[in-house]
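Supplementary Data S3. Sequence and structure tokens for construct A.
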Amino acid sequence: MTYPVLIDAYHLFSDLYAVSNVPTVVWVDENDTIVRPNAGEFGSDTFSELTGISCIDHMNQVKAWVKEEELPEDASHTVEDFNIDEIKARLHFRIAADTRSEYHFKKAEELAPLDFTIVRASMPMRGGNPFGEEFFDLYERYQNAGSPYHGIPRRTARLGKND
């Protein structure tokens, strides 16, 4: 990659900007201003076979922004804050990540059962595989719940349809 990528190892950015899933893309301009808030977009088609989601629409938006300074309509989207359970879940997760406390991992997951930042991130810390059966169970529950997401709702092409 030839562009900066944020790795939020302590989940500070995700807590501050209500990022509750991966992948998430936030557009930041050369003045360090967020010009488009978090959106559950893909930067490549690496997972398109699993998700059925193509990156082409998002990449075309990025090209229009870079070449023509054209922001998509959804750039002014307001991302809703975490609710109290999600905030508590983040706090339990932070304690669990530092202490490997199964009690706090379970509390975090009970409070935010579909938050990939919590549930999926805890998998390797708890001896699980973030690309294994647990992940596929989580992904299925997430899809069955309507793919809830803090941020811009996905409008990118699915293979053969749009959601």
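Construct B, processed identically:
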Amino acid sequence: MIITIDGPAAAGKGTLAAALSKHYRLAYFDTGMIYRAVGLEMVLSGFCVEDEEKALETAKKMTFERMMELSAHKDFRSDIGGQAASKVSAIGSVRQALLKMQQDFSLSPTFADGTPANGAVYDGRDTGTVVCPNADIKFFVTASLEVRAMRRFKEFVAKGIETTYEKVLEDMLARDKRDSERAAAPLKPAKDAIIVDTSEMDEQTEIQTVIDIIEQKIFSTKKL
């Protein structure tokens, strides 16, 4: 079973994807990690993250091992990593260079330890529209801009990252604009995606809501 979860930043995709992968014993593929790795690698190398030539060169050299090394960096999950990821992911040639890796994973999904899995949960921006258009079930998770900005602000505060709600809100608005207006795979729900608005949901409510939807779909499919 392949499940895709797309949506804007801080909508609850990561939490949901991790929970579903555990619940259904499926592999978890966070596609955003690839773009964060490329973006952060460029930042650490002193490159402009909007330089298409350097971004493509960095993407082609990126390996799984290097991505995991970069994931331990303090800025990988910070706003610096998020903004860098958003900018390099808007470059069509970079997305194309990294697309095959993402698609191949759905054919032979594996857990982190390398053992085979019976499917995967994808977390990203275009997993249901581009990466896995034939996924068994697709979700587009969203929430209001203000709710998402407050969630991200609280995450940063908890991690000791100095910022303000106003700055996080401004950065998130700019990121949403880039993601939705990019020529290469703009952020939008797949035509057959199920929209889940988490603005007024806590984590457990969000997870249970989606599990109920999946169970209903699996049951109806078996009846057919």
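The longest strand covers residues 137-142. The mean pLDDT is 92.
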